[in-house]
Specification:
MetI-like fold
Length: 511
């Protein structure tokens, strides 16, 4: 017997049962009044001109860092992606060995979360605006390189072979045959990376690298919930505007969404994309100047203290089994809550059309609300630990996966769902076996990829909720124990690389 694909998307939601049993024991009794005040403040954000002016300046820094890091990471990723393509090396030199070596090397920077990069660069470069930009560019550039090289190697090469057989030079044949089919995927993926850059810039601000994230953290710690919600509503407006712009451009240019479904549009690209690229250069220069980024300041590194054998012995004596086990358990719980929670919530509200806008708003707040701030808010009423961290991380990724599922459901044909409705089937069952049937495997495949991302994000909530490798990383950074930090980075890199391999295998099997 095999489980039907629509039901497979609900299996991860089974983690809600043990959560319901454990959650009452995690409550410590105090803080519910603060949660109530936090919820009430959402309807009455502060409109004080001084507060709004401070938030707008922080928002400007966050958006500037996101745009600059996004642009640089795309440029870096495009160059590295072409350099790590097996197809390009095989065409130009007859061997793909350099591509394989570069791919393995790029796995290291992308396996380390941008927050860790930010904290490390902060130690060696000091507090300067370029730290936040570099912290995003390094892992994002490696991620973009992987996607571009994979897309390029997966394209049909019949046209390329024909041009080479006709006597065309290798570079010219590659540009002519592979450039046009590669461009839509690069542009579509670049739009998604811009949304991620905005979230990452906000997250880095929470940990002291400036911008709106720092303002949000200070207002939460001082319990100024009205000021906090002023910043959240501003950030939500920017995020939704950005998502709408990307969606409109994707439809205008006829690009595919993350389910591989082509968007309705006329496929206009060419001149408009070139015009957009031409406008980016002066915009990036203006942002760099306004942020006060000085490239020469990056050459002045603070030396790290020497490491002694005694320190390495102390680092090896850490409880590695418990730390790694808690990190893996946190990943599984968060991934199950996010992957299974999105379709379950959609099914629950299916009969009530008016409830769907509220669900969209909840998911939008989950996407923009940084997980460490969610963990701090949950600590008002829950004890620190794995479940509290899983709730914080699961809520954030639930917003991302929920939006993805809605995009896919709206792009799918509703014929099967309408046919089930016509036969008297209820709204929930019609949605489950109508639309979810077509989306199940691709949604689970993206959920496997998101699980790999969640593994990297465990460091974010671990710093706040006191669990996993993130907690030890915070202690090691506070005591400048670089031997421990080095081993923690190796552990994180190894875990994320193994998780990346497992998620790739799961996606190939599903798709």
């Amino acid at each position: 017997m095999k489980i039907a694909p629509p039901l497979q998307v609900l299996i991860p939601a089974g983690v809600i049962l043990p959560l319901a049993l454990v959650l009452p024991g995690l409550c410590h009794g105090g803080g519910w009044e603060l949660i109530g005040a936090f919820a009430e403040a959402a309807l009455h954000p502060s409109l004080d001109p001084v507060v709004v002016d401070s938030l707008l300046r922080g928002l400007g820094v966050t958006v500037g860092v996101a745009l600059l890091s996004w642009c640089l990471s795309l440029l870096l990723g495009l160059l590295l992606g072409l350099a790590s393509s097996r197809l390009i090396w095989s065409t130009l030199s007859g061997t793909a060995l350099p591509a394989e070596l570069l791919r393995r090397f790029l796995a290291i920077p992308r396996s380390i979360h941008e927050l860790i990069w930010g904290l490390l660069l902060l130690q060696v470069l000091g507090l300067q605006p370029a730290v936040a930009v570099l912290a995003i560019v390094i892992p994002y550039g490696a991620l973009v390189a992987r996607v571009i090289s994979d897309q390029l190697d997966a394209l049909p090469d019949q046209t390329l072979k024909a041009l080479l057989s006709a006597g065309s030079a290798g570079p010219a044949a590659l540009l002519t045959a592979m450039g046009p089919p590669l461009l839509p995927g690069v542009v579509s993926y670049g739009g998604y990376r811009l949304e991620c850059a905005l979230r990452s810039a906000t997250l880095l601000g929470v940990f002291g690298l400036g911008g709106l994230g720092n303002e949000l953290l200070l207002t939460l710690q001082s319990l100024e919930f009205r000021e906090l919600w002023s910043g959240l509503w501003l950030l939500l407006a920017v995020m939704l505007s950005l998502e709408s712009l990307i969606r409109a451009l994707r439809q205008r240019w006829g690009l595919a969404n993350r389910f591989g479904q082509a968007q309705p549009g006329v496929g206009r690209q060419g001149r408009e994309i070139l015009l957009l690229l031409g406008l980016l250069l002066p915009l990036m220069l203006a942002i760099s100047h306004s942020l006060g980024i000085e490239p020469a300041a990056l050459l002045h590194w603070q030396p790290l203290p020497p490491l002694h054998s005694q320190h390495w012995q102390e680092a090896l004596a850490l409880p590695w089994g418990r730390l790694i086990g808690n990190t893996l358990l946190l990943t599984v719980l968060s991934a199950c809550l996010a992957v299974g929670g999105a379709p379950l919530l959609l099914l629950l509200v299916a009969p009530w059309r008016l409830a769907q806008p509220l669900l969209r708003l909840l998911w939008a707040l989950g996407r923009l609300w940084p997980p460490p701030l969610t963990a701090l808010l949950l600590l008002f009423v829950f004890k620190p630990g794995i479940w509290t961290a899983a709730l914080a991380l699961g809520f954030h990724n639930l917003g991302i996966l929920g939006r993805l599922l809605l995009e896919g459901a709206e792009s799918c044909s509703g014929a099967a769902e309408d046919a089930l409705h016509g036969q008297g089937v209820g709204a929930r069952v019609a949605l489950l076996y109508g639309r979810f049937s077509a989306l199940a495997r691709s949604y689970l495949a993206y959920g496997a990829y998101r699980s790999d991302v969640i593994l990297r994000e465990t460091v974010v909530v671990g710093l706040m909720a006191g669990t996993g490798l993130g907690t030890q990383l915070q202690e090691s950074l506070s005591s400048f124990a670089w031997d421990q930090i080095a081993l923690l980075l190796v552990a994180y890199a190894a875990l994320t690389l193994v998780g990346e391999d497992l998620s790739d295998r799961a996606r190939r099997r599903l798709l």
